[in-house]
Amino acid sequence: MGQEKGVDIGVHLQYQETKERIIFRHGDSRHMPPHLHDSLEVIYVTDGTLEVGIGTELYHMDAGDIALIFPDVMHHFRVFSEGENYACYIQIPPAACGAFVEKIQKYSPQNPVIDRAAVGEEVCAALKGLSGVSQEEFVLAQAYVQILLAKCLPEMELRLKECSGNDDIVYQAAAYIAANFRESLSLASVASELGVSKYVLSRIFSGIFCCNFNRYLNDARLNYACICLENTNRTITEICLESGFESQRTFNRAFKEQYRMTPREYRKAKCPPGM
Fold first, then answer.
1. Of 9, 13, 37, 150, whose Cβ has the fewest other Cβ atoms within 10 Å?
2. Ramachandran area for residue 90 (φ above 0: left; ψ -120 to 50: alpha; else beta)
C-alpha cells in the first residue's frame, strides 16, 4: 500500500440511512472542484499522492499521510502524479464526533495534513475499524471516530474559522448546490436565490471553479450517485432520480462521459460479488 504504517482498508462501509451516517469510500483519487459539506472529512492516502486545496493554499499528501477537513470549510482536490493514486475518503457527521464536536465546528486546522511519521498505530486501527462497521453499529463507529480525533487533533494547530465565509458569494454558491443538487437547478434559478445576476455567477464558476455551472452541478450529482452505487442496494433508476437527474438516459450519458463506464459497470467493478 506504499507505506510502513498502513491499514488494510475495506472497499466500502455500509452506512445508516439517516442523517447520522458515516460515508466511507476507498478508491481512485481525482480532481474535484471547490466544495464544502457539513461533515468532517478524513482523507487517508493509501497509494500515490494527492493535493488538498484550501483557499489559495495547496497541501501535498503522500501515501500514509492523513488530512482532516473540518465542516463548512471550502476545499478541493488535485492529482498531479501519474500512476495509481488511491485514498480513503470518510465523511463523518458532527453527531459522531462526541466531545470534539464544538472544536471541529468552531475551529479549522492551520495545516490539514498530518505527516505519515505522526500517524500512529491507533489511528490506523481506528481507520480499519471504521472500514468494517455495519449500519447497525453506529455507536461503535462513534468510538472509532473519537479515537481518531483524540490522536490527530493534538498534532494540529487550530485557528478560529473565518467568520466572513457565509457572506462570500463563492461560499454561498458551493453551499447552495451542496444542499440542493437533488432539485431541478439552473444557472438562472441559483443566481436568483443568491441575489446576483447569472452572468456574475457564470464568471465565478469559470474563474474560481474552473468549469461551467452545469459541469459543477453534474459533478455533485455524480459524486453522490457513486456513493450510492458503492454503499447501497438501491436500483440504478432510484439512484438516478435521487441524485437529481431528470431521466436515466441523461444520467447514463453523464456517468459514462465522466467515468468511461456505465453505472452498472461501475457498481460491478467497485462492489464485486461476496463483498
1. 150
2. beta
pLDDT digits (tens, 9 = 90+) for 254-268: 999 988 999 999 998
Bridge-based pairing state of the strands 66-69 and 23-28: unpaired
C-alpha cell read off for 232: 447501497
Angle at 160 between CA 154 and CA 166, to 5 degrees: 135
Enumerate the β-bridge partners of residue 42. 68, 90
Distances (CA, A) of 21 to 26, 141, 153, 174, 204: 16, 10, 22, 22, 32
pLDDT per residue over 189-229, tens digit each?
999 999 999 999 999 888 877 789 999 999 999 988 988 88
Residues 97 and 35 sit within 8 Å (Cβ to Cβ): no
Extract the C-alpha cell encoding 207: 474563474
Quickly tell me which residue has 466531545 as its cell: 99
Note the pLDDT tens digit of each residue in 41-75.
999 999 999 999 987 789 999 999 999 999 988 88
CB 241 within 8 A of CB 252: no
